[in-house]
Each structure stands twice: as structure tokens, then as C-alpha cells.
Amino acid sequence: MDTNTILVSSTLCTSFLIFQLLFHFVSSWFSAKVSPGFNNLSFEKKIEWNSRVVSTCHSLLVGILGLYIFFFDEAIIADPLWGQSSLATMNIATASGYLISDLLILILYWKVIGDKCYIIHHCTALYAYFFVMKDGVLVYVANFRLLAELSSPFVNQRWFFETLKYSKFSKANVINGILMTVVFFIVRIVAIPPLYGFMLAVYGTEPYRRLGCLLQYSWIFTCIVLDVMNVMWMIKISKGCIKVISLMRQEKANNRLQNGKVD
After folding, report:
1. Which string of b and e fits 46-79 if b means at least 16 CB within 10 Å?
2. Which candidate, 115, 20, 1, places its Cα nearest to that of 58?
3. Which residue from 109, 133, 148, 257 lies 20 to 30 Å from 190 (Cα-Cα)?
4. Cβ atoms of residues 206 and 132 within 8 Å
5. Are the CB atoms for 58 and 122 separated by under 8 Å?
6. Closest Cα to residue 150, out of 187, 124, 100?
7. Total structural domains in the chain?
8. Nearest to 236 by CA among 158, 167, 175, 145
9. For 93, what's the count of Cα atoms within 13 Å in the CB-facing half-sphere?
């Protein structure tokens, strides 16, 4: 095996094993230490809790590393289609190991946390990352897509607050909700036009033609699928945000009425 194959396979397997250990053992132990409410949760809630803890760990790892690669990895910045980077490849393999681990967890606990959207998302991403890891192409683009993971910790934290019965109007919940909406919008929606603009810019160039039809169509297809899902999730988040703002205004008006401050 060549060096790249060894790097990819070892990183992917290590990632898979670590995330499995986090889900089955570490998360429950750690969560019980830092959040007394964890022990009072039902079995079903604990399964989803552990799944989201692992998701947060993965997102912070690959998202922050992806951000570093996006700004400072000169080899793939100079050649986004064919540039090589061991660090970027490791980041993609780490994300792939997590996706396989999470797919297994989703299947094992389908009645508790099964979601067809996540299956489609994970399989689409894995299909794209397979070509990146196998052929060493579009490494920069794949890492750019991983920046979307920076929104996941806020989405998961919202679920933790809700599960622990935090008020929707609590300061922590409101701040997290604002950050979740803003970060999700930036890394998943604002990032869409530059990506497709880049596709158009390289279309027909010699490096693009070297990709071959399969890679060209796969690149476009997987991006469309993932971005349609991102838009759907953004709409859902926006509706939730509008609902909370409306409820906050309503509660504020009710408090003013009770205090006799309304003319």
C-alpha cells in the first residue's frame, strides 16, 4: 500500500473506534459528572444525548481543523482541485470515520434516533469523501464543506437545554439560539454561492477535465443534495427562531399588563 492509503485507512479506523468508545462509554461517564440531570433521563434520551455529545466532539475537531486548512494550507489553496495535503486528508478521513460510526449507531438504535435525513446526509457525504480519499482530488473543496460542521455544537446545545428543561427565554438558551442561527447561516447558506461560483470558474479548464465525468457529476450531485438539506434545515431553524421571538414579545406584553404599565 502507498503512503496515502495507509494514512487514510489508519485515520479512518482510528476515528471510527474513538467515536464508538465516546458513544458507548466516555459520554455517559463524562455527562453524569458535568450534568446531574443526565442520570434522570430515560434510556431513549440518554442514547440521543450520547449521540449528540459525540457529534459535538466531531464537529469541533474537524470544523476547527478545517478552518485552519481553509486559511493556511498553501498546497491545496494554490491548487483546489488537485492539491495534496496530509493534514487535510486526515481531516476528511476523520470525518468519514465519524460518519460510519454514526450510521452504525443510527441503525442500532433506529427506533430511538433513526432519521432518514441523516442517512441521506451521511451516505451522500461518504460517497463524496470516498473519491477524495481514493483519488486525492478536491481535497480543498471537501475541507471547505467540513466548515459546515461548525454549526453543529450550537444545534446540539439547543437540544441539551431543551432536554434539561431550560426555559426557552433563559439567557443561555437565547444566546445559544442566536449563535446557532447566525453560525448555521454563515457556514451552510452563505457558503453556497462561492462554492458554485468556484465550480463555474473552473468548469472547462484542463484540471477540471482531468477529473473525468464520474468525479465531475459526483461533485455537483453531492453538493446539490447536501445544500438542499442545508436550506431545509435553515428554514426550520428560522421558523423556530421567529416563534421564540414572538413568544418573548408576547410574554413581555403580558408582564407589562400585569404590572399595570399598559395605558
Report:
1. bbbbbbbbbbbbbbebbbebbbebbeebeebeee
2. 20
3. 133
4. no
5. no
6. 187
7. 1
8. 158
9. 22
Question: CB–CB of 131/215 below 8 Å?
Answer: yes
182-236, pLDDT tens digit by residue?
A: 999 999 999 999 999 999 999 999 999 999 999 999 999 999 999 999 999 999 9
3-class state of residue 203 by DSSP: coil
CB 142 within 8 A of CB 129: yes
Q: How many other β-carbons are positioned within 10 Å of the β-carbon of residue 83?
A: 19
- For residue 195, give every residue at least 6 positions away whose Cβ sits within 8 Å of its Cβ, in sequence order, or none: 141, 144, 145, 223
Q: Do residues 81 and 207 make contact, with C-beta atoms less than 8 angstroms apart?
A: yes
Asked if residues 89 and 139 have their Cβ atoms less than 8 Å apart, the reply is yes
Lookup result for grid cell 502507498: 2
Sorted by sequence, the CB contacts under 8 Å of residue 263 that are 6+ apart come out as none
The per-residue pLDDT for range 42-73, each reduced to its tens digit, is 999 999 999 999 999 999 999 999 999 999 99
Q: Give the amino acid at 242.
A: I
Write out the three cell numbers for 204: 472547462
- Amino acid of residue 193: P
Provide the angle, in degrees to the nearest 10, between the axes of the packed helices 116-135 and 139-146. 150
CA distance 24 to 36: 19
SS3 of 173, please?
helix
pTM over 0.85: yes
Per the structure, the complete domain to which residue 120 belongs is given by: 1-260
> From start to end of the chain, where are the E strands?
none
